[in-house]
Design goal:
The protein has 201 residues and is of the alpha+beta class. The protein has six helices and eight strands; from the N terminus they run ββααββββαββααα. The chain is elongated and about 90 Å long.
Amino acid sequence: MPRGVKGTAVIYQHTCLFCKREFSSKKRRQGCCSFRCSGFFRNPSLPTAERFLKHVNKLGDDVCWLWTAAQDGHGYGCMMMGTRGIDRRVAKAYRVSYELFVGPVPEGLELDHLCRNKLCVNPKHLEAVTSKENTMRGNNQTVAQSRQTHCLRGHELTRDNLYTIELNKYGKRRCIKCCRSRANLNSAISRARACGLLRAQ
């Protein structure tokens, strides 16, 4: 039923033909609540496997399957999942591939690209590992620092030469010998300034 005040536009209450959600519109005709629902109502989505393979460039079973559709901000392929407007979500393309051809990802694990190619969706190039293992296999700065065996001054980074908390707020391990040398130098400078031997800058 329309509702409104004299002199203003009449607003009609409708039920979306696709997601069945109630919405308001100035149009008298029954329709969908959004362009997304309208598209799904007129052109029902294909099965997940068919939609997925439509955007995959398969060059062979043992080489990378390149994703040719949308990408997220980190360079990974992504696609829309779900059949109804209220269930729509964005899923990683490589995760969809693993669940289609291998099975569900075990709880507590995440998928690692063995080929290091973010756009690859070949299930043979994916392995379910822990979050720590996935991070340690990467090539970022944190991993490079964790593999470092000596500090910049040549001190060995063993358990006895590291603080109990190995990572400070900047995510770097701290060498005890270097920190002690720096503290001794600062103390010597402070004493020299106190005695007038060194002018403060």
